[in-house]
Amino acid sequence: xTRMPNGIVLYHYPTTQFKTVTMMLCLHQRLGDDAxxxxxxxxxxxxxxxxxxxxxxxxxxxEELYGAALEPGVWKLGERQVAVWELELAEERFVxxxxxxxxxxxxxxxxxxxxxxxxxxAFRADYLAGERxxxxxxxxxxxxxxxxxxxxxxxxxxxxxxxxxxxxxGRVEELAALExxxxxxxxxxxxxxxxxxxxVVGGGEPEDLARRxxxxxxxxxxxxxxxxxxxxxxxxxxxxxxxxxxxxxxxKLCLGFRTATTYADPAYTALAVANGILGAFPHSKxxxxxxxxxxxxxxxxxxxxxxxxxLIVSAGINAADYPRSREIILQQLAAVQAGDFTGExxxxxxxxxxxxxLASEDVPEQKIRDAVVGLVNGxxxxxxxxxARLRDVTAEQVVEASRRIRLxxxxxxxxxxxx
Length: 419
Description:
By secondary structure, this protein is of the alpha+beta class. It folds into 2 domains: about 1-215, CATH 3.30.830.10; about 240-415, Cytochrome Bc1 Complex, Chain A, domain 1 (2-Layer Sandwich), CATH 3.30.830. The protein has helices spanning about 35-45, 55-65, 100-115, 125-140, 145-160, 170-175, 180-195, 205-215, 270-280, 285-295, 320-335, 345-360, 365-375, 385-390, 395-400; strands spanning about 1-5, 10-15, 20-30, 70-75, 80-90, 120, 120-125, 195-200, 240-245, 250-260, 295-305, 310-315, 405-415. The strands form 3 sheets. Strands 1-2-8-3-5-4 form a 6-stranded mixed sheet, sandwiched between helices. A hairpin with a 2-residue loop joins strand 6 and strand 7. Helix 1 crosses helix 4, helix 10 packs antiparallel against helix 11 (about 320-335) and helix 12 (about 345-360) packs antiparallel against helix 14 (about 385-390). The longest helix has 18 residues, at about 345-360. About 45% of the residues are buried.
């Protein structure tokens, strides 16, 4: 880790495993009323900068950089929103005459951030209009993916008085209200004040990379904003039930639980194993008991939201099977909490998680995202540490972590007149 004078922090993962270098700039903000303003920025800045003012100009520049690829994105990690610019370049050792290819890639990222295409002292209105409409369509299209829609609606209902309820792109009305001058002022503020990190996978010697980064990314910043951690929230005294009716052929059942454990907690690894035994893998209880043995679900699985401390169970069912499906799902969690799982289930889960951790090392983007999750939660660990934690987890620790899980909200998306 290298902290630059302007507050940008460089996280470098040197490796010769890949033929490319992956660089990712991450600008952090709280998830809240500014969600739409933050979300549009990566896509808007990708439209062009002073040196390369159009998408065509940028495409030509990327081709000159031996076919580099540039992708914007937005992540929602608990109640943290992260604007992302990812640049993939050829490793210099594989290029016949690279020059300072890595430095040129960094320079392009700097230009995108500090010299975006402008008009009348603000963002170009036509560029903003295009990206604003693109994000509005993305938010609206969520309704077409009923599985993803149901999971999002569960989070909305479960965390209705918490920032986590917001979509990572904000609300449609907030996106529609974005204006060039106001957005320009907002961007200048967060670029100057908010946490900004550069992650690099590959890229040669650490000292050389740090030197290049300090030289290229030396633009004025104060970095005075500290965002803090995501609050956990508490489950209600009695679980809530929400039923929503739409024109759907297959009902979607989602159960949201508060785990009282985040990635920052030493007990998180045991919780992750509990989730693996419950529903994260094909050998898990939900798949075997709900889908295969009871034939109640087209799919049934569970996943953790590590930064907010949530566990989400999702199943596709026939609406008439809702009461029985809910009952059997809760029985599987109760079994884990009672320690009713075999040594084989524990070891199968451990091996599946090990494979997942090791596989993430083969995907630079996932490696960086895992690192950002660790950074946001104040526990930035390497693969060796994560594997060691996993191998040390005992059945007793799994039971202890699972017993902190409390049902918060049950959400059912069903056909009209069925519920």
